[in-house]
Design a protein that fits this description.
The protein has about 90 residues and is an all-beta fold. The chain has strands at about 5, 15-20, 30, 35-40, 45-50, 55-60, 65-70, 70-75. The model has no long low-confidence stretch (mean pLDDT about 90).
């Protein structure tokens, strides 16, 4: 099932993060819990994992952009799976 990757919240008072580097590109296969992106918060640089195995079909937030926690930053889906309902 297609799913959004959300910017995690690692601690109290940390309400945003900056995408430093995507470790995977659109179209790459990913495994559940595999690190796919480096995120900088006010206190540290952390790696966020894929929520499920599949293909990284869409990066929603580019490197260098800062977003609030729980913002969708990418979408993982199975090959051929429709994920258009996750784009809004």
């Amino acid at each position: 099932m297609a799913s959004k990757i959300l910017l995690p919240k690692w601690g109290m008072g940390l309400n945003e993060g900056t995408i430093l580097k995507w470790l995977k590109a659109e179209g790459d296969l990913v495994n559940e819990d595999e690190p796919i992106v480096e995120i900088e918060t006010a206190k540290a640089v952390e790696e966020a994992p894929a929520p499920e195995s599949g293909r990284l079909v869409k990066i929603l937030v580019p490197e260098g952009q800062t977003v609030e926690t729980y913002t969708a930053i990418a979408i993982v889906a199975a090959d051929g799976e429709d994920y258009s309902d996750l784009l809004d």
